[in-house]
């Protein structure tokens, strides 16, 4: 596995070069949003409203960070289970979303949409929420304040560690990994 530094927003060349199992360090802006925020974004689209941020080329991090301690930018910020966003992800990929960070498997529908719309799904490092939060250098609430930790936040990250799970070529680390350890 190679380690690759990438910067947001993501472009097609970067996506084509990412392969399942690659370790990446992400720098730039990512957007934090969980399932309730995703539902609200889809509802906004159905009403003909604009999303709270330009989704083209962006990464959404599935996280509900804890409140920051005094003097800190953010609290613990570990990834949440991605399947809760599966109902909304294909439509967001169609609109130009290019990456998602979470943990766990994705549905076949999401994996097909990742290939069709040239996206990527990263796994964050589970169990290391306090460590991951050190990669977040700024956090700004941008929408749905009433959702508390599940509100949409604009995060600026530097060398945020992740692993490519589903690449735009159809690779799936969970399937390929099982092959390596089958008896």
Secondary-structure topology with pairs:
Elements: E1 3-7, H1 12-17, E2 23-32, H2 35-46, E3 59-61, H3 89-94, E4 99-102, H4 108-116, E5 120-124, H5 129-133, E6 136-143, E7 152-166, H6 173-180
Parallel strand pairs: 1-2, 2-3, 3-4, 4-5
Antiparallel strand pairs: 2-7, 5-7, 6-7
Question: What does this 3D model show about the protein?
Answer:
The chain is an alpha/beta fold. It has a single domain, classed as Fe-S hydro-lyase, tartrate dehydratase beta-type, catalytic domain (fumarase), CATH 3.20.130. Strands 2-3-4-5-7 form a 5-stranded mixed beta barrel. Helix 1 links the parallel strand 1 and strand 2.
Low-confidence stretches: none
SS-based class: alpha/beta
Per DSSP, the total helix count is 6
In CATH, the architecture is Alpha-Beta Barrel
Question: How many domains?
Answer: 1
The order of strands across the largest sheet is 2-3-4-5-7
- Under CATH at level 1, the class stands as Alpha Beta
Provide a short characterization of the protein structure.
By secondary structure, the protein is an alpha/beta fold. It has helices spanning 12-17, 35-46, 89-94, 108-116, 129-133, 173-180, and strands spanning 3-7, 23-32, 59-61, 99-102, 120-124, 136-143, 152-166.
List keywords for this structure.
183 residues, alpha/beta, fumarase, 7 strands, globular
